[in-house]
Write a structure and sequence with these properties.
single chain; about 290 residues; alpha+beta; Trna Endonuclease, Chain: A, domain 1; five-stranded mixed sheet; four-stranded antiparallel sheet; 10 helices; elongated; binds zinc ion
């Protein structure tokens, strides 16, 4: 049995399920995620693996809104599949300003919206309904999905670059980048990552894509390409792309089980002879 007992709220939940069918989605109530949470209503579309919409309905303004939002957004994505949009609904009366403020981070950074004071309020109900009609996942254009895919690919390349070279401008950039524009853009990588990560899920239609989105995607792609190609050029000359020193084979590292026994394995590393940049690492058992 569900946690809801208020007959009006139950009718509203049933309305959400009917609405799903009318818009071409499958819906499920009291949907169990990862065996220990329920979501009031989940809408699916056969072409998408993740839920399209999830809804948590509170009859009145309570703190449950926090727990219900956290179980969607604060859980690992390997355990809880993230919806395209999540809705928090306070059916009778308004969400308090304090509660709304405390949910601000999710409201700013996720596709999360709050609708309240819907019961006996035809205007609020039709606003909510219009919003659902407008968010049609089947209408996401080729352009929007290619922006999204490019942004996500570029973000993971930038994360890898930061992982290898760190946040401070490495040799590969300071020595090899002739244009000062690109030299500066290396240190912008963390802000590019944050910007694109947020924007990817805020863009639903072509008209949502701004000039700034395109500029930042272009700058990100450019810095990734330049780091990649210059890294290869420097390596072909046995120069470390991270610090500018020599790359070669480091002295092998012997691993001992007991100090008096011979080593049980040896690790061979090719990489910079000065800094932590590595090309290849192999451990061989003897
Ligand atoms: Zn180095």
């Amino acid at each position: 049995m569900g946690r809801h007992t208020d007959p009006d709220t139950l009718r509203f939940i049933a309305w959400l399920s009917d609405k799903a069918k009318a818009l071409g989605y499958a819906s499920e109530e009291e949907y169990s995620i990862a065996n220990w949470y329920d979501i009031d209503v989940v809408w699916y579309h056969p072409d998408y693996e993740n839920p399209v919409f999830t809804f948590e309905v509170e009859t009145r303004n309570t703190n449950s809104m926090f727990k219900n939002t956290a179980k969607i957004y604060s859980t690992p994505k390997s355990v809880v599949k993230k919806p395209w949009h999540h809705f928090g609904i306070v059916y009778k009366g308004n969400l308090s300003e304090g509660n709304r403020l405390a949910l601000g981070r999710d409201l700013d950074y996720q596709n999360f919206e709050i609708f309240d004071n819907i019961f006996n309020n035809q205007t609020a109900l039709s606003n909510f309904e219009t919003h659902l009609n407008r968010l049609d996942i089947t209408q996401i254009s080729e352009l929007v999905s290619s922006f999204r895919n490019n942004a996500l690919d570029t973000v993971s390349s930038m994360e890898y670059i930061i992982h290898v070279f760190g946040e401070k401008t490495p040799y590969v950039v300071s020595d090899q980048f002739v244009l000062s524009l690109e030299r500066d853009s290396y240190e912008q990588i963390p802000s590019y990552i944050e910007y694109l990560r947020n924007r990817v899920w805020q863009i639903n239609r072509e008209k949502d894509i701004t000039k700034k989105d395109l500029d930042i995607l272009l700058a990100s792609t450019r810095v990734v390409e330049r780091v990649d190609s210059n890294e290869n050029v420097l390596l072909s000359m046995s120069i470390c792309p991270k610090c500018g020193e020599k790359v070669g084979s480091r002295p092998p590292i012997e691993h001992y089980g007991h100090p008096e026994d011979p080593p049980h394995s040896i690790t061979y590393v090719d990489g910079c002879l000065i800094c932590d940049y590595e090309l290849n690492r192999e451990t061989i058992s003897i």
